[in-house]
Amino acid sequence: MLNIWFSESPYDVPFDEYISQPDPWFDNQGGEEFITGALEREMIKAIDKSEVISCNLIQSPILGAIPPSYLSGTVKTLVLINNFPEKIFNANAMGNLAAPWLLKIAEQKDIRIRLGYIMKFEEPFKIRILNSDTIVDSYKEYLLAAINYLSAGS
Fold it and tell me: Is residue 89 a part of any domain in this protein?
């Protein structure tokens, strides 16, 4: 299941396993070791329009041959979420392109993210809002929960 902690501040997350900056964490923790799986290849192809050749080489239609460190922050964060489900990742830099991939990963394992904005998820889904430990299964419920925790002064 996808578990979301809503917080306007990336530093207001009460979990020891929190990774506030997934992009450099990927680069510094050997994230390239995790890009050759089938799901990772599929995400890289869909989001960055690039092909994984090996753990050290990506073929980009725009940039040519690139190292994994040149992948988008969205892809890096999704790869980390898939491979480190025990962590909670700051997903605030990911756009709406990440939403279906988060739900896909969450079909197989419990994952946790922090969001400071309202990401657009397409129904059907089941998402746990960690702030209140409630499960929402409609966009309206999700939106109401997000607004509650992201409104100024809450």
Answer: yes
